[in-house]
Amino acid sequence: SWSEELGELGNGVVSGTKMHPSLPFEGVDHLNEVAQEQYGTEGAPTYFMFGYSWMQALQQAVEGVGEIDQDALKNWLRENQITTVAGPMEFDERGLPERYSLATQMIDGTPELVYPREFKGQEVDSDATMIYPYEDA
Questions:
Q1: Residue 117 — left, alpha, or beta (φ > 0 → left; ψ -120 to 50 → alpha)?
Q2: Which of 16, 33, 34, 126 could form a disulfide with 22 if both were Cys (CB 3.0 to 4.6 A apart)?
Q3: By the 8 A CB rule, do 63 and 96 touch?
Q4: Residue 45 neighbours by CB distance under 10 Å
Q5: Contact assessment for residue 67 and residue 84, using Cβ atoms and an 8 Å cutoff
Q6: CB within 8 A of 73, min separation 6: which ones?
Q7: Nearest CA to 18 among 72, 114, 83, 99?
Q8: pLDDT for 26-36, tens place per residue?
């Protein structure tokens, strides 16, 4: 909706995120294919990917604990590394994953991943380069 509502005025904006359809992790390509087939989008929407990642975390915790017990799930996640479409994750004593941020820039109506070129030891699937200063004719 960003590009639909703002049109060319939305180009050039840089934003931080933790999820992007260009990430090189298992399952991202599949989500992108489903998004293309089901919704006609180029890649999986960011919040769709967040939700999928959260469900992957829950699934791995339930399988690790062997039951649905909120305290046991919480403790298991704090003690184990998991892997989701966001890559490998570990949670701290507060139950939060490590902090990281990706930079996207709206280029020709698409949020392109412009930083970093390598994420968690793997090359990202994006050749977009940040445009600065962004001047639109």
A1: alpha
A2: 126
A3: no
A4: 14
A5: no
A6: 58, 61, 62, 65
A7: 99
A8: 999 999 999 99
User: How far is Cα 7 from Cα 135, in angstroms, rounded to an integer?
Assistant: 14
Tell me: the pLDDT tens digits for 78-97? 999 999 999 999 999 898 88
Token pair for residue 100? 């990281």
Edge-to-edge order in the sheet of strand 14-17: 14-17, 102-107, 110-115
> Residue 48's closest CA among 17, 24, 73, 77?
17
pLDDT value for 55: 97
CA dist., res. 39 & res. 42, Å (int)? 9
